[in-house]
Structure formats: structure tokens, C-alpha cells
Specification:
This protein is of the alpha/beta class. It has one domain: Hypothetical Protein Ychn, Chain: A (3-Layer(aba) Sandwich), CATH 3.40.1260. It is about 35% helix and about 20% strand. It contains 4 helices and 5 strands, in the order E-H-E-H-E-H-E-H-E. The protein has a 5-stranded parallel beta sheet with strand order 4-3-2-1-5. The two termini are about 25 Å apart.
Length: about 120
């Protein structure tokens, strides 16, 4: 049974430290060879747009855009359907490789055998 990580980021600039933790854990998982699915919900949904991850600055933390690049290169990044709709984010707006999907997809990923779900 393969182990995987499903990480849900719920904060953006309103909770920069929590947001950066989610991205850091996701990138560390990818770097370790673990299958990773990073979900951007709430205010973190903005980081699915080009240039937005560069705006988050947190002292002593790896830049968010670098972490996002690692996750996109080796994992999956998803924006919550409702979160995207509330912010006017359309599929053509997001960074290449980011998808928009809903709660049923999250539940499917989080309940797969061997999956570990984390919420930040």
C-alpha cells in the first residue's frame, strides 16, 4: 500500500504562517517521493493565480512561489470549486497544472487507502 499526503491549505495572507506550513509540508513530501495532493481553499485559493504566491512574504521561510513550483513539478494542486467561484477564479485563470475540483474529489483522495490528510 502506497502512502500519500492530502494537504488542505485554508489560509492565505490572513494566516501566512499556516499557509506557508501547508506548502512546506507539501513540498517536503514531494521531495521525499511521497504522492502529494495540495488543496487550496479559502484565502489560499488566490495562490493558484500567476504571480500571487510571490506576494506572500514570511521571515525565515522558503518563498511560497518556490514551494508551489516544487509541488506542481511532482504533485497535484487543486483549488476548491466553491472557493474559486466565490473569488471569480475560472479554470483559464490558474497556473498551468492547477485544477479546480470539488469536495467529492477531496473526499475520494483523502479516504484512499494509505492516505494521510492534513489541514492547515
Amino acid at each position: 500500500m502506497a502512502r500519500s499526503l492530502v494537504i488542505k491549505a485554508t489560509a492565505g495572507a490572513d494566516g501566512a504562517e499556516r499557509c506557508n506550513q501547508a506548502f512546506t509540508v507539501a513540498a517536503a513530501g514531494v521531495a521525499s517521493g511521497v504522492p502529494v495532493s495540495l488543496w487550496l481553499t479559502g484565502e489560499s485559493a488566490w495562490y493558484a493565480l500567476p504571480g500571487k504566491a510571490e506576494e506572500l512574504e514570511l521571515p525565515h521561510a522558503t518563498p511560497l512561489d518556490d514551494l508551489l513550483g516544487v509541488v506542481l513539478a511532482g504533485g497535484r494542486v487543486t483549488v476548491c470549486t466553491q472557493c474559486a467561484a466565490r473569488r471569480g477564479i475560472e479554470p483559464d485563470d490558474v497556473i498551468p497544472g492547477v485544477r479546480i475540483a470539488g469536495a467529492p474529489t477531496f473526499v475520494e483522495e483523502a479516504t484512499e487507502e494509505g492516505a494521510q490528510a492534513l489541514v492547515y
